[in-house]
Amino acid sequence: MTVWEELKARGLIAQVTDEDEIKELVNNGKATFYIGFDPTADSLHVGHFMALCLMKRLQMAGNRPIALLGGGTGMIGDPSGRTDMRQMMTKETIQHNIDCFKKQMERFIDFSDGKAMMVNNADWLMNLNYVELLREVGPHFSVNRMLTAECYKQRMERGLSFLEFNYMIMQSYDFYMLFQKYGCNMQFGGDDQWSNMLGGTELIRRKLGKDAYAMTITLLLNSEGKKMGKTQSGAVWLDPNKTSPFDFYQYWRNVDDADVIKCMKLLTFLPLEEIQEMEKWEGSQLNKAKDILAYQLTELVHGEEEAKKAQAGAQALFGGSADTAHMPCTELEESDFAEDGTIDLITLLVKSGLVPTRSEGRRAIEQGGVSIDGEKNTDIRHAMKKEDFQGEGVILKRGKKKFNKVCLK
């Protein structure tokens, strides 16, 4: 099976500009391609994870990835998929986020010996002369056509700022610059980026008279058509300080039955034949598939040791084992207790990250969704003493799938 055939079989390919040319380049390791990452937070998340997996697959086949960090485009903000304008970030925040991205990307992509590049579009965007840019690029963009792009259409009713309207031009200019500076002949991105990517191929054709190509990858959606990688408490991050390896593992262990095989194909590096065998599994066997999915992805992001710990912690919780060593743990300090040496249950739920707010904690308790060491507790005034947390501590549970061990520091 060629690289291209595997990408298709895994369901990764959404739209392409020229399938025959892209297939030829990718299969023969001749693609120098880029994917852009705007530094909107201080960690990559599950949405970026899919793009990194694609970069890794293509690099393994001899192609050369360019990770484009959006130090310049991050100053504007991508309107794609947004119902409102992104919050403006300072240069210092953007640089900090870029530094965080770099460390995480190096876990996935081999940047040694020119096998891949990491480039910041601030290098050319921040020093542009506005009038020169208008003269150089402006004539090649039709406002009428831009307004038909999906990323703009969905914003027209609520209002689209001129600031955001420039984003397509900036992204197109990125491709144009990467083509000239590094021989980048292809851009990959999420399916919501299609209009912006076509702008880049068109600008290269009009300005340089040469061909460049674009391909979008399937967005990571669940069986209900909603974006995956979101929980009640927010995004699923690749930074272990923002989403612990255990919580990352649990996220994938808890995907719906209808989504597990799709996630296997899109995100893991398991052979397709092995995944196709799992497609025949039913009932309790699907839980085994979810265990495999969770372990594979946690190992990819956090390494083998953390994946084993997360797996052991999950087995301890759901298998009834007494081994709580690898569960996520919240340590209480003296200052967490009241003068009488107690701490109330709602505060415990908030401190352990099982609820985002006290009001949600109160609601969870009243609805019978909270237990302490396996015993349901519906008393919103319940408090625990310091000595209750000695030794192994206590296991707090919210709902069926959220756990946290609480002990003394």
UniProtKB/TrEMBL annotation:
<protein>
    <recommendedName>
        <fullName>Tyrosine--tRNA ligase</fullName>
        <ecNumber>6.1.1.1</ecNumber>
    </recommendedName>
</protein>
<keyword id="KW-0694">RNA-binding</keyword>
<dbReference type="InterPro" id="IPR014729">
    <property type="entry name" value="Rossmann-like_a/b/a_fold"/>
</dbReference>
<dbReference type="InterPro" id="IPR054608">
    <property type="entry name" value="SYY-like_C"/>
</dbReference>
<keyword id="KW-0436">Ligase</keyword>
<feature type="binding site">
    <location>
        <position position="230"/>
    </location>
    <ligand>
        <name>ATP</name>
    </ligand>
</feature>
<dbReference type="GO" id="GO:0004831">
    <property type="term" value="F:tyrosine-tRNA ligase activity"/>
</dbReference>
<comment type="similarity">
    <text>Belongs to the class-I aminoacyl-tRNA synthetase family. TyrS type 1 subfamily.</text>
</comment>
<feature type="binding site">
    <location>
        <position position="171"/>
    </location>
    <ligand>
        <name>L-tyrosine</name>
    </ligand>
</feature>
<dbReference type="InterPro" id="IPR002305">
    <property type="entry name" value="aa-tRNA-synth_Ic"/>
</dbReference>
<keyword id="KW-0030">Aminoacyl-tRNA synthetase</keyword>
<dbReference type="InterPro" id="IPR036986">
    <property type="entry name" value="S4_RNA-bd_sf"/>
</dbReference>
<dbReference type="InterPro" id="IPR001412">
    <property type="entry name" value="aa-tRNA-synth_I_CS"/>
</dbReference>
<feature type="binding site">
    <location>
        <position position="34"/>
    </location>
    <ligand>
        <name>L-tyrosine</name>
    </ligand>
</feature>
<dbReference type="InterPro" id="IPR002307">
    <property type="entry name" value="Tyr-tRNA-ligase"/>
</dbReference>
<dbReference type="InterPro" id="IPR024088">
    <property type="entry name" value="Tyr-tRNA-ligase_bac-type"/>
</dbReference>
<comment type="subunit">
    <text>Homodimer.</text>
</comment>
<keyword id="KW-0547">Nucleotide-binding</keyword>
<feature type="short sequence motif" description="'HIGH' region">
    <location>
        <begin position="39"/>
        <end position="48"/>
    </location>
</feature>
<feature type="binding site">
    <location>
        <position position="167"/>
    </location>
    <ligand>
        <name>L-tyrosine</name>
    </ligand>
</feature>
<dbReference type="Pfam" id="PF00579">
    <property type="entry name" value="tRNA-synt_1b"/>
</dbReference>
<feature type="short sequence motif" description="'KMSKS' region">
    <location>
        <begin position="227"/>
        <end position="231"/>
    </location>
</feature>
<dbReference type="Pfam" id="PF22421">
    <property type="entry name" value="SYY_C-terminal"/>
</dbReference>
<keyword id="KW-0067">ATP-binding</keyword>
<comment type="function">
    <text>Catalyzes the attachment of tyrosine to tRNA(Tyr) in a two-step reaction: tyrosine is first activated by ATP to form Tyr-AMP and then transferred to the acceptor end of tRNA(Tyr).</text>
</comment>
<keyword id="KW-0648">Protein biosynthesis</keyword>
<feature type="domain" description="Tyrosine--tRNA ligase SYY-like C-terminal">
    <location>
        <begin position="339"/>
        <end position="404"/>
    </location>
</feature>
<keyword id="KW-0963">Cytoplasm</keyword>
<dbReference type="InterPro" id="IPR024107">
    <property type="entry name" value="Tyr-tRNA-ligase_bac_1"/>
</dbReference>
